[in-house]
């Protein structure tokens, strides 16, 4: 019986650490850069995910429209102004496309009603998304040098050499002006 407990304990331990490290999401700019810069703290989608752990962020090929970039930057300035910290917001200076930018950790995915009703959820992230499902993102890390890469639709997997190169090129965790720390769900 003791042998069975040890084996079961070892399997549970492995299961809790065996999260995939190669899952990627292609996003349009400027949202992709804002996410890995720690400014955007949640990502809205029309579909849910069970994925938890590292999520690589890829910038789509579509060049962002300058007017749209200004509108999104203004939106984030007002979100942070609601928390009284807009003067400290440091927006990206460029929005590259067709490249891998970095990663975040996904700690949960909530439907909007549950997301908006969460009492322990900061106000800022609640203002960021009204989508059908909200991915809770934290611990953003940027690649020191983003590298060219074609993307795919929805969640997709980086091949092992690309993931290893990306891991080697990551900078430190970005601590934005108001980082979100979400309860895992």
TrEMBL record:
Coiled-coil blocks: none
Segments forming domain ASCH: 25-117
Name of protein: ASCH domain-containing protein
Origin species: Ectocarpus siliculosus
């Amino acid at each position: 019986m003791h042998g069975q407990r040890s084996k079961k304990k070892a399997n549970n331990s492995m299961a809790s650490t065996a999260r995939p490290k190669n899952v990627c999401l292609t996003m349009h700019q400027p949202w992709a850069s804002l996410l890995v810069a720690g400014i955007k703290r949640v990502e809205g989608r029309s579909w849910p995910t069970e994925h938890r752990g590292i999520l690589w962020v890829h910038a789509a090929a579509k060049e962002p429209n300058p007017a749209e970039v200004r509108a999104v930057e203004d939106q984030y300035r007002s979100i942070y102004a609601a928390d009284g910290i807009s003067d400290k917001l440091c927006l990206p200076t460029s929005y590259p496309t067709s490249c891998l930018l970095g990663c975040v950790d996904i700690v949960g995915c909530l439907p909007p009603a549950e997301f908006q009703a969460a009492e322990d959820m900061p106000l800022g992230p609640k203002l960021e998304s009204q989508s059908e499902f909200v991915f809770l993102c934290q611990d953003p890390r940027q690649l020191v040098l983003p590298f060219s890469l074609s993307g795919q639709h929805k969640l997709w997997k980086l091949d092992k050499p690309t993931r290893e190169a990306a891991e080697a090129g990551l900078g430190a965790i970005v601590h934005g002006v108001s980082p979100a720390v979400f309860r895992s769900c």
